[in-house]
Recover the amino acids of this structure.
């Protein structure tokens, strides 16, 4: 029933005023917030997506910040881990003079205004300056070895009374029991694992044989460390308790003195002790440090680079998700168009209409950042509380950082609000009447983004062009290098502006690229036009892909260039999986004059026996090849009072033989010594600079077998002929000119005048020109030449056994290394011998590039997936129409695939353009690496494989059935 | 002692509205003159495309004329900014649309209170006034319901309640009964008539002569021009005959 109107009100009794009502904006905002809250509830899926998009990077940033802070010890943790319950720790300080001071909170951080040694300064022994009234406990580091796989392995060994109650908090017995006799010890988990022991097993060491009866944790070291804990005086090597420093005349820097009980050690006491060369870690000082000095010599620690890097990565992550969330908000705003238009018709001003969408952003953002912070903190706490019991000291404790967490939350909230603001402005601008009539958002394309984007693109082009010009144009390399900071700034700024410009221009690109689509198949045509019509949804997603592809392509070009550079400059000590063992060992100098004369001695080892030893130790030996080489100089020399060397009566032993570099074959350099062109054949590879020797001898005497070994392949006929004809096979072309190489003899007693501090070699005393053939090895191992035995004899050169080349089928494992090292040490009679196998260039570099492709693909597929899902939801009415006109159900799948392809393809294409060009220009213009390397395969994968994969996934995961309703069918 | 007639609430003076430019330009209204006084109920009739809805949009400040002037309570709309137009709509103009246009995220009472709240009225006070308006249209019990919990007729009553809440002096109704059955439509017309009797100026756009018969005056539009005006005819058949002429 409708009630009759009861009152007749004069129409003009109140004048119409249009001034803003007091509190009107606030009240309107309340309405907006209410509407936003209810809209979020009505669209749970979309809201959850936005929350997750913001929440996950906030969680990541919060977690990373918390873990970073958790790595820093608090003062309480510092004293617990380092001192246990003791008052202080005294140690010798490596001071050169009395001016050395220590950090109040770290006895191993020292600084001084003067680092010159004071001859009058004699550091005190910590034992001599210990204050009275304390129980003194020592901890002494010992050198102990144990045998593993036949090899001697060094053990970190501490002689300490770890079970003393004063060390509670520092040492913790985790398993087993305390030692009860002289043959029982405590060990770390790492030691048990290294020697494959269980508690109760015995371990033979250079200090004796002990039974490991307990697993101990030293809070200052991770459990994975191989540590043997002896008691003071235990074992044959350990000094007796309290006598650690007595035998040594200089202060014993291996022993730490802990003071238990008594009064706290104050900072003035420590300052005084520092003057005497003793450092102290005091519980009371760490917990209550003195005010920092001005200037503070220990203020070098700078966290800002870490914070900046983290902030940059976090900002980029939030930019990405902000763009993706922007697409979701755009769809939401579009769904609200009618509602918002009605709001406008009811008298809401544009700010109120914007508030509805931005309020949704703030609501969702608030939920997301709170959830993200909670998730990040919980995750970090989980990691800390899981890692600590595992025995890692990497994380000292759970240290949430309020400032960093708050910053991450603020950034997330800001990203969400900004993501909502763009569609909000768009919706607020549109004509209310049109929206009310059609229920669709009339396209109100602002021109400012395109104008600003165009302007920025021009500016970016100018900066890139200017940077490129300054960096590339000019002959004076030294001058070009002086410009590098400016060039780098211009190119980096240009690259950043390019991305910003392209993001702003994305809408225009979408519009232009989707204009002529009549020739396309129906799904692609519809997807293209849908992208163009719904730019508020398309642009953020394409921009997100663009930004990701830009970063990925920049990273890939830089990584590929660096890897190529690393490959080019990799130092090949031998061919891959080859090792070279010496056949001649330098013996102790034969003293002719106790003060100034020595004669190097040499001991030749049996190559057959050595080969047998290696083969017995390793199952992966493919072949071995002994090499003979021209004998190294063996020259009697005597130092004069001026430091120069003069020879005795030896006239031949002081000659060193090598190949000379003909004029014109030197690597061109600038006056300041810079290589002019790193890609010049005279400057390339590990053979540059020429003459640097690897494990292989430089001048080998031999034939086919020797050549095969050093080439890594069968030698060519030409080189065998040249050997037979008295010539030389040379690996490095810089030594050969007009088919000849010059064998030079230099006198090691006569160094050429140095240029600056650079050694210029020895004076050439003779040169012999030999026919030469360039025979490039498989890998650019350092320079060598091969001559035949006959040629060596003809030239009067002495050949002697030099090296045994061992070719393996792969890298030996740790156990094999232990075994062969032990065998070699025994064979040579020299401790610490090992087999250094050339690793070569692995596939890690290529894997890194694929990882970058994978990360970028993840973002691209996410963006494409999100926008496709939103487009499908958005186009429900269109799909109903399609169903009504008889479209096949598969069309919906095709549309989804085409939509995904459109977003991923366009974004990736623009992103690669924005990334590859500035990155390549930067590498070339700054000479960061030898040259810019474009990883075409990975870029093509990103450009083609990833978008099509996205399309295939979208096709697979989209339901085929078209929605049907009477309304959609026009019924 | 002078006797003043009812004040003019709406004045449309030589208003033209053209959409598009050049060859694609379409003149929706051509030099239309129309005034509606307080307490007057004017129905606008005409065939589709005659410019009825354009006229309504101009009257409510939702659109701007290409030429001519629109005055609401003597205030020229042409001189108002977007924000002032928004305030005008929430203080002086009540809209009723054919398809109700309720905000789905607000309850019936909140929908009705919307213009008041947007104008700074405290929520509780606005709700009280909204309840009064809902009472006037006979559905106070639906105050807490959302749009999808009401029938079409109920939604339209809520829309009318929103149009009449507060001190609105101009009510613009665009085919308000188009989506309703005849009984409900009759009720809606009763409400609009009641508002006019209470002193509001009411402008109704309709195709149906039986609804136009509720008006004090009927204006006929064709091709963007007012071709005829008629006084109240309570016989729809006569009105149809007039429209046919």
């Amino acid at each position: 029933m409708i009630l009759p109107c009861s009152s007749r009100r004069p129409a003009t009794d109140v004048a119409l005023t249009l001034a803003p009502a007091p509190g009107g904006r606030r009240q309107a905002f309340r309405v907006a917030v209410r509407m936003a809250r209810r809209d979020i509830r009505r669209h749970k899926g979309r809201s959850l997506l936005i929350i997750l998009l913001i929440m996950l990077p906030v969680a990541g940033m919060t977690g990373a910040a918390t873990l970073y802070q958790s790595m820093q010890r608090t003062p309480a943790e510092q004293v617990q881990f380092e001192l246990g319950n003791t008052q202080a720790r005294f140690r010798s300080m490596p001071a050169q003079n009395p001016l050395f001071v220590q950090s109040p909170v770290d006895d191993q951080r020292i600084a001084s205004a003067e680092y010159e040694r004071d001859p009058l300064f004699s550091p005190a022994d910590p034992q001599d300056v210990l204050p009275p009234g304390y129980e003194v406990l020592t901890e002494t580091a010992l050198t102990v070895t144990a045998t593993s796989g036949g090899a001697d392995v060094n053990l970190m060994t501490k002689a300490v009374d770890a079970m003393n109650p004063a060390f509670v908090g520092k040492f913790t017995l985790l398993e087993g029991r305390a030692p009860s006799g002289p043959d029982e010890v405590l060990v770390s988990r790492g030691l048990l694992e290294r020697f494959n022991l269980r508690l109760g097993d015995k371990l033979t060491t250079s200090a004796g044989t002990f039974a490991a009866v307990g697993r101990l944790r030293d809070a200052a070291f991770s459990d994975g460390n191989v540590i043997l804990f002896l008691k003071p005086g235990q074992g044959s090597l350990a000094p007796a308790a309290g006598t650690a420093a007595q035998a040594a005349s200089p202060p014993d820097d291996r022993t730490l003195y802990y003071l238990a009980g008594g009064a706290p050690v104050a900072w003035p006491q420590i300052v005084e002790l520092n003057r005497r060369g003793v450092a102290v870690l005091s519980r009371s000082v760490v917990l209550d440090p003195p005010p920092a000095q001005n200037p503070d010599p220990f203020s070098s620690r700078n966290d800002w680079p870490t914070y900046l890097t983290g902030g940059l990565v976090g900002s980029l992550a939030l930019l990405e998700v902000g763009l993706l969330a922007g697409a979701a908000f755009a769809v939401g705003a579009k769904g609200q168009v009618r509602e918002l238009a009605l709001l406008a018709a009811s008298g809401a001003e544009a700010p109120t209409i914007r508030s509805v969408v931005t309020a949704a952003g703030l609501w969702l953002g608030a939920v997301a950042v709170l959830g993200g912070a909670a998730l990040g903190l919980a995750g970090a706490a989980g990691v800390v509380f899981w890692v600590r019991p595992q025995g890692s000291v990497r994380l000292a404790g759970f240290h949430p950082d309020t400032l960093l967490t708050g910053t991450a939350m603020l950034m997330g909230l800001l990203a969400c609000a900004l993501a909502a603001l763009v569609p909000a402005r768009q919706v607020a601008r549109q004509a209310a009447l049109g929206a009310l009539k059609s229920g669709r958002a009339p396209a109100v394309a602002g021109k400012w983004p395109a104008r600003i984007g165009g302007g920025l693109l021009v500016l970016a082009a100018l900066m890139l062009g200017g940077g490129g010009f300054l960096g590339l144009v000019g002959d004076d390399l030294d001058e070009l290098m002086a410009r590098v900071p400016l060039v780098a700034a211009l190119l980096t700024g240009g690259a950043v502006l390019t991305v910003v410009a392209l993001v702003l221009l994305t809408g225009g690109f979408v519009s232009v690229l989707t204009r002529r689509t009549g020739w396309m198949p129906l799904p692609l045509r519809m997807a293209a036009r849908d992208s163009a019509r719904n730019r508020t949804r398309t642009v953020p997603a394409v921009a997100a892909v663009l930004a990701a592809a830009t970063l990925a392509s920049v990273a890939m070009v830089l990584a590929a260039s660096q890897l190529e550079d690393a490959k080019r400059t990799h130092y090949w000590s031998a061919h891959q999986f080859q090792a070279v063992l010496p056949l001649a060992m330098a013996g102790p100098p034969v003293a002719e004059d106790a003060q100034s004369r020595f004669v190097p001695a040499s001991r030749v080892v049996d190559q057959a026996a050595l080969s047998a030893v290696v083969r017995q130790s390793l199952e992966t030996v493919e072949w071995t090849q002994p090499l003979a080489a021209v004998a190294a100089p063996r020259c009697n020399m005597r130092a004069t009072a001026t430091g120069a060397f003069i020879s005795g009566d030896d006239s031949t032993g002081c000659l060193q033989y090598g190949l000379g570099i003909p004029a014109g074959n030197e690597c061109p350099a600038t006056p300041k010594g810079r290589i002019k062109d790193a890609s010049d054949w005279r400057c390339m590879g590990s053979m540059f600079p020429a003459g640097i020797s690897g494990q292989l001898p430089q001048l080998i005497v031999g034939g086919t077998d020797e050549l095969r070994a050093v080439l890594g392949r069968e030698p060519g006929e030409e080189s065998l002929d040249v050997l037979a004809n008295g010539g030389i096979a040379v690996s490095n072309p810089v030594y050969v000119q007009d088919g000849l190489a010059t064998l030079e003899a230099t006198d090691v007693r006569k160094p050429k005048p140095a240029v600056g501090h650079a050694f210029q070699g020895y004076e050439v005393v003779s040169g012999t020109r030999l026919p030469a053939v360039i025979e490039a090895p498989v890998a650019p191992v350092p320079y060598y030449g091969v001559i035949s035995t006959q040629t060596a004899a003809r030239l009067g050169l002495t050949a002697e056994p030099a090296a045994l080349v061992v070719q393996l089928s792969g890298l030996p494992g740790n156990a094999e290394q232990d075994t062969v090292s032990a065998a070699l040490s025994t064979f040579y009679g020299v401790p610490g011998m090992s087999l250094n196998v050339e690793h070569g260039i692995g596939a890690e570099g290529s894997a890194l590039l694929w990882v970058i492709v994978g990360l970028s693909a993840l973002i691209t597929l996410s963006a494409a997936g999100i926008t496709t899902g939103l487009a499908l939801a958005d186009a429900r009415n269109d799909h109903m129409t399609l169903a009504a006109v008889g479209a096949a159900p598969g069309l919906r799948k095709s549309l989804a695939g085409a939509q995904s392809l459109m977003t991923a393809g366009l974004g990736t294409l623009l992103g690669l353009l924005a990334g590859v060009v500035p990155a390549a220009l930067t590498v070339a213009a700054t000479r960061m690496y030898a040259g810019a390397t474009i990883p075409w395969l990975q870029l093509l994968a990103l450009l083609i494989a990833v978008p099509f994969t996205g399309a295939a996934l979208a096709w697979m995961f989209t339901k085929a059935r078209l929605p049907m309703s009477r309304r959609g069918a026009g019924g | 002692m002078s006797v003043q007639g009812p004040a003019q609430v709406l004045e449309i003076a030589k208003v033209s509205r053209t959409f598009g430019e050049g060859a694609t330009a379409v003149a929706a209204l051509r030099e239309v003159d129309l005034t509606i006084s307080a307490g007057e109920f004017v129905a606008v009739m005409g065939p589709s495309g005659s410019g009825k809805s354009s006229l309504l949009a101009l009257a409510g400040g939702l659109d701007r004329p290409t030429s001519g002037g629109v005055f609401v309570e003597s205030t020229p709309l042409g001189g108002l900014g977007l924000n002032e137009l928004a305030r005008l709509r929430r203080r002086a103009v009540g809209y009723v649309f054919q398809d109700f246009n309720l905000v789905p995220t607000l309850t019936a009472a909140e929908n009705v209170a919307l213009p008041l709240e947007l104008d700074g009225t405290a929520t509780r006070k606005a709700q009280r006034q909204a309840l009064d308006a809902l009472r006037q249209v006979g559905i106070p019990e639906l105050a807490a319901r959302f749009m999808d919990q009401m029938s079409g007729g109920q939604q339209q009553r809520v829309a009318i309640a929103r149009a009449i809440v507060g001190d609105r002096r101009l009510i613009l109704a665009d085919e308000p009964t188009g989506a309703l059955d005849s009984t409900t439509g009759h009720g809606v017309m009763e409400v609009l008539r009641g508002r006019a009797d209470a002193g509001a100026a009411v402008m109704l756009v309709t195709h149906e002569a039986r609804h136009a018969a509720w008006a004090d005056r009927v204006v006929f539009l064709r091709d963007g021009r007012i071709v005829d005006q008629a006084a109240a005819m309570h016989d729809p058949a006569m009105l149809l005959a007039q429209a046919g002429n």
